[in-house]
Amino acid sequence: MNSLGSIRRSFAPWADPAAKPYISFDGVTKRFGDFTAVNDLSLTIFEREFFALLGASGCGKSTLLRMLAGFEEPSAGRILLDGQDLAGIPPYRRPVNMMFQSYALFPHMTVEQNIAFGLKQDGMPKAQIAERVASMLKLVKLEQFARRKPHQLSGGQRQRVALARSVAKRPKVLLLDEPLGALDKKLREETQFELMDLQQQLGLTFVVVTHDQEEAMTMADRIAIMDKGEVRQVATPAEVYEAPNSRFVADFVGSVNLFEGTVSGNGGNILTIAASDGFEINVENAGAAADGANVWFAIRPEKVRVSSRAPEGSGANVTEGEIWDIAYLGDMTIYHVRLPSGRVVKASQVNAARVIEDALTWHDKAWISFAPDSGVVLTA
Amino acid sequence: MAEVADDTRAQGAAADRREENGLLQTLTSRLVIIIPYVWLLVFFLAPFIIVFKISVSQPTIAMPPYTPTLDPAEGIGGLIEAFGQFSFENYVWLTQDALYINAYLSSVVIAAVSTLLALLVGYPIAYGMARAPASVRPLLLMLVILPFWTSFLIRVYAWIGILKPEGLLNQFLFSLGVIDTPLIILNTNTAIFIGIVYSYLPFMVLPLYATLEKMDFSLIEAAQDLGCTPSGAFWKITVPLSLPGVVAGSMLVFIPAVGEFVIPDLLGGSRTLMIGKTLWNEFFSNRDWPVSSAVAVILLLILVVPIMFFQRAQARAQEEGR
Amino acid sequence: MNASWSRFNIASIVLGFAFLYLPIVLLVIYSFNESRLVTVWAGFSTRWYSQLLQNQGLMDAAWVTARVAFISASVATVLGTLAAIALTRHTRFRGRVLFTGMVFAPLVMPEVITGLSLLLLFVAIGFERGFMTVTLAHITFSMCFVAVVVQSRLLTFDRSLEEAAMDLGAPPVKTFFQVTLPVIAPAVVSGWMLAFTLSLDDLVIASFTSGPGATTLPMKIYSQVRLGVTPEINAICTILIGVVAVGVIAASLVNKRREVQRLRDEQAAQRG
Known about the structure:
The complex is a heterotrimer of chains A (about 375), B (about 325) and C (about 270).
Chain A: H1 2-5, E1 23-32, E2 35-45, E3 50-54, H2 61-69, E4 76-81, E5 84-85, E6 96-99, H3 111-121, H4 126-139, H5 155-167, E7 173-177, H6 185-202, E8 205-210, H7 213-219, E9 222-227, E10 230-235, H8 237-242, H9 247-252, E11 257-267, E12 270-275, E13 280-284, E14 294-299, E15 305-307, E16 318-328, E17 332-338, E18 344-350, E19 365-369, E20 375-378
Parallel strand pairs in A: 3-8, 3-9, 6-7, 7-8
Antiparallel strand pairs in A: 1-2, 1-4, 4-5, 9-10, 11-12, 11-14, 12-13, 14-20, 15-19, 16-17, 16-19, 17-18
Chain B: H1 2-55, E1 58-59, E2 66-67, H2 75-85, H3 89-96, H4 98-131, H5 137-149, H6 152-163, H7 168-176, H8 189-214, H9 218-225, H10 230-241, H11 243-258, H12 262-267, H13 275-284, H14 289-321
Antiparallel strand pairs in B: 1-2
Chain C: H1 7-30, H2 47-54, H3 56-89, H4 96-108, H5 111-124, H6 131-155, H7 159-167, H8 172-201, H9 204-209, H10 217-225, H11 231-271
Helix pairs in contact in C: 2-11, 3-6, 3-8, 3-10, 4-6, 6-8, 7-8
């Protein structure tokens, strides 16, 4: 499973026990009245990491970011940045900057003035400010828009001004609150890569809050999946997708089929599960589980094969059903196969050929099958 | 061990920082509240307490023309003695003289009738504005607000020239041949109604317009699509949805109208009774400060319920706006 | 939308505006009447205006009124803005209910009560009545109007602008003066204008709280109006209406121009 982490790049300080964390949340709790937004949360982020906080709205991810920025104080616990306890330091004295979801560009100032705002607060000499602003404008390719006011810019340009403004002070950490949320889909995809390049170029630590899993998967080195004020899993995008640690994470990221069952055999590196849907599942490298334990087998739709004839081989990992629904998406087709137990299994197939012979259609009898190493066993 | 010590020191420093920032910030943010608060306590609330105090005092021919005057120099003894002299005689006097009771009653009635009339006049205007093309709405809005910026006194005064027996209205009607004897409007309640409706119309139209403009007019289409007649849709959809505006507008007209002075004084003539005018005369002509204070206290009591109602609505609107 | 602007809607607007404006228009027209009999037209003349300029009492009153209005509007704008911030930004503090009550109550409080109570306060603390007392009284009731105007702007204010300023290193007070105030400036300005005209127009509160030597224009006009309609009063009223109308129309034209420019810019920006 370690191999999953290295799919992206060799940058992996979290796997190195000697690496010193750059940001650490240490038992942080935040309550608003009766409501607990963040509950006893501990988390470490490393220098130069692109870290994503992913979760549905109200999961506490924005509160976590705002505590790092200094807009909220934790009710309990500590936040350390580069070894320094941030408690009591107001936002205007923290070495972190934030890019706001709404961009929060000052409407009465030009692009230049917006970018220079933070530098002026530091009392930087004028010539140096001008130089820094110019280089920032160049960085985000807005040189000819320097004298414009925010309302004279398009959405994408505003986003880049906000970005330039928040990195102009060379903060230790850049916080991004839904940085691409206000852009349309096409622009969003382009900007994702721009952000990644920028992070590499500047060598900054990025902490991004998003509810868009695709965005998090594309950009982040690691993702923290959050729910109800708690972190459910922190891992690389590949690990989160291929080796989720719970049904919640498996279900939250991407699409998944879950089969409930009890462990019936445990030989070698093969775990056998008697699924409640009436067939047997063999899983390779599933880890240890006691006989008779209640477990779930999670498998992604693209790893489930659908065929009109019974596949050859052993009786495990195969079951019969009926085509219940078909969604043709162009690049792929998603089949909903209804098992006799009533469960509907999703299976997606890439349309590699233009014409598919022997195509399955509604109410056809169909077999689903999968390889023993294509899914994971979950106990939670 | 050293690490632990470091840790505690760091925590101590953090706590210090918190204190320092906290103090500065608390001070500035407190001042934002304290300055206007103290101002209003001194110039708005304290005067009411004084009004109440004087309303239980006795008139004398002196300056100030009431007794006891609270003199802090006389100490606690003097204060207690002063309290001994307080009496509710002025209030008893108010209940015994039919003049005051009638003035209160007719003020409330005149204000209520005027509010109703203002609603009837204002609603179609507000509705028409809300349904106007979006491009002309700001202009219409400005045209409604503009008279509000011009002097109240002037606007009331303008009606004298129109309503008096040889005034412009009668001249106009004569020339049309509608009447042959002049209509007597000035110095009657009708003139007061006209004056109040005219002066307070923007206060009625603006909140009505605000609620009607926010309303989604496809609701009416939906109601008609579901089989409602246009007038049915108006009564079942538009009116209930604009109710907050109706309440706000009515309060904004009714409350000040009850205590109105300029309109009854200039348009109402000598026979009209309104409490604002009574208070004014009691104060400026009779120089009876204790009685006029008592009149003010009772007027305030009459208005306390609608004022609280109005404030509750304001607070709710504010919560929704948040 | 156009189709639903029925004839009835248009008629009610036209009649409504006629009702609102006809009296003022007539007053203005008859201020140019040659005859002393205000309601009989006897030809165009500006003689009443030239007579005004020779009326020293009226001129003095106008000067007093202008000073009172300027000072009270300025102080009321500061206090009202503070009150608006307190109302929108500090959702809980001790005595908030009382505070909210004191801000909103003067909006509907009958003027006779406000005037009487302030007068009695000034007498009780031995404050001599005059220019100062009128000014203090006007500050008190107009600051509440300013508070309401500014508060409604603050409610729609994007708080993240302030957070961004602080995030970039500006302490709270600096943030207020560099970001918040410039953004809400139009509301503060219209609050000032409102306070100014309220003070300019007020008769009742000024009558109670002013003393000898501090007669305001509305008090002067009122004392003459009681004697009947005269073309001279029509003339002074016309001037007052003119001053206020020019001010308000100019302000809203500037606003409108800015708005149109902003919209055009935005459309241009979207086109790229």
